[in-house]
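task queued by scheduler; priority normal; single chain, no ligands, no partner chains; default sampling; output format set to structure tokens
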Amino acid sequence: MEHQMKLESIKYPKGAEKVKAEILSWLRKHKPLPGEKFFSQRELAQILKVDPMTAHKALKELDDNGILYRIHGKGTFIGPRPEEVACKRYAIIVPRMNIENKEVNPDSWHIVNKIYSAFMHSLRENEIFSTVVVQPGEKVNPRGFKPNEYDAVFFSSENEFSGLISYLIESQETQVIIIGSKQDSCLRCMHLSPSLTESVYNGISYMAEAGYRKIAYIGSEKMTEKFKGYKKALSDYGLKLDMNNVVLGIEAQREGARGASLLLGKNSDIDAIFVDTDQKAVGVIDYLASQEIKVPGDIGVMGFDGLEQFINAPPYLTSVKTDFGNLLGNALKILRNKKRNEYIEDRLDIPGFVIPNKTLARKTL
């Protein structure tokens, strides 16, 4: 390199931290281009009058931070690495356009919005996120879809796109990632799960610790992982599972009020209700109000999803917030660090956490 490094009187600790400070100061002053060769470990040790191991440690830490990078047998270079600068493209497969719209997709638009939002907050400047419409059940490689144009393809439904998922896993044309994957899935790809069982367990545990002892459950018959979390938490807290306090088969988001009506029609003895989605929980609260049952004075209510429009505005719902931001953020970190032709088979399970709010009160035990 043309420029010589000179020691500057920077008041940093000695050793590797001092070397790092000198390097960073030199980089700020000379502004070398990415990919330009940097001083070797031996040269750095001689210039800064430190032992080679101290220089090695400083270079390694700057390599780990992406400021420099080293290639075995060739030397040290100005970061970031070329593969980190290259644009990365990701796609999510959807069954139709505008599925984030409540009118188009009334039962799961909120989940799609959370996934889209998580992507937008996690992407870097050199990353592109696209949606690709594929008809459910379409087999092998749909016309117009070129998997090898993407660094990874995300699916929010394992069942709807089973044929395409199997094809892509077999061909390994691109990395396959399933969002909201079931615990017992045996597909050889990358799985992201909000850990529904553990998430509901966290919610019921919070209710039990707040003093509730007769906790009812309203939800979908299909969401067996959520109901499993409910039963496990009751058992662990020594609370009785009374099926008279359970209403299943409430599938549509607009059916929360119907679920509450069925529950009260059983003459259930309850002090709280856990509802498997926020939207249904709002319907439950509305129905309770119509029956002059106060929330949380008479009955506490907890939802599931942590939707902003319900936790930051009336009814100020207590809810379990699913952490899609953490899931997608960690998945993208793994994708950025994987080797070009590497295919990842892994699982990320990150449970949701309780958002305390006004529809649940701490009871006196």
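post-processing summary
- The chain has twelve helices and 14 strands.
- The mean pLDDT is 90.
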